[in-house]
Amino acid sequence: MVEPLQGLTNRAIIYSAPGESLETAVVSLPVQQPAEGEVLVKLYYSGVCHTDVSFCMNALPGLQVPTPKGQIGGHEGVGTVIAHGPGVTSPPIGSHVGIKYVADACLTCDNCIEGAEASCLNLKISGYLTPGTFQQYCIATARYVTPIPDNLDLAAAAPLMCGGVTVYTALRKAGLRPGDWVAIFGAGGGLGHLGIQYAKAMGGRVIALDVGSKKDFCFSQAADEFIDVTQFDVDEDVAAKIKLLSNGGVRTSLQCTSSSKAYTQAFSSLCFRGTLVCIGVPQNPLSFAPNLSAMVGQELRIISAKTGNRVDVKECLSLAARGFIKCHYQIRKMNELTNVFKDMQAGLIEGRVILDLEGV
Length: 360
Ligand SMILES: [Zn+2]
Ligand SMILES: [Zn+2]
What we know:
Layout: E1 4-15, E2 24-32, E3 38-48, H1 50-56, E4 77-84, E5 96-99, E6 102-104, H2 110-113, E7 124-126, E8 129-130, E9 137-141, E10 146-147, H3 154-157, H4 163-174, E11 181-185, H5 190-201, E12 205-210, H6 215-220, E13 225-228, H7 235-245, E14 250-255, H8 260-268, E15 270-278, H9 292-297, E16 301-304, H10 310-321, E17 329-333, H11 337-345, E18 352-356
Parallel strand pairs: 7-8, 11-12, 11-14, 12-13, 14-15, 15-16, 17-18
Antiparallel strand pairs: 1-2, 3-4, 3-9, 3-18, 4-5, 5-10, 6-7
This protein binds zinc ion (ZN) (2 copies).
């Protein structure tokens, strides 16, 4: 039996009616003692990811059970270790750590041995069945939290726990080389704007694609070119514009949206041996049919990036700590999460929303 910690109250955001509405509520809960192998983390900030919206609406394909009522969401948290469970010595008390989408991986199954911790056969996901980072105190597996470099702003570090590491891993898996053109679909969003920055930090040249209102924002993130996707009725015209700007097609297309139309555009804009990286999942996952003739003829690749492993997170944080990555964010309060979800669904957010977990 785990004892609650006396004298502390944990304010947490729960999903009131998962699958039915975006309604959330801030509640007070006891703070639990960490058990063996665990640490207690006092969280300061949590990023809000589109996957949180999906968990709240039970809209993520392939989940075994629906998100339960009362689930504490969130998977981009940063804070300080304030207590060790029995047997734990690291990370030290007082150190800054991050909590990721993968709350815990066994590190011994075949997928983990491949380095695919996000596909661990014994995976635990923060904010789905495991209480996530939309709370002030979070129990976490000691060997799976991420040390945060000292010189990194804690709020800006939060979105790197999922959004940052996902786009970094996508670019790394695509084999981005200096000078390569990269097309980023959904470039003005949480993932997309970090994608622009990581692609540039890795030596790429970026064509940002989004709605026209995000043009200035994408250029402020150092995009080389911008395409307003609303100005085109025909998918082939978007691809033709990308090929014109990149002198024949992009080496990598990062698909950060959930639009099947954008998938067709992203695939059609590749150059010889180009790679489409699937990140966003369309409502109808069968809606994208690649041209297999082009795929074989041009030796194209389609790969995916779910999120990264511990090495990927370390590398993505290292680039940020050296000043190459600056997440664009707005701070919101815990009781604003429902409205944040609605704004995200409407595509109104530039960059990332970060919840200040101390200001309820
Ligand atoms: Zn996420
Ligand atoms: Zn595993």
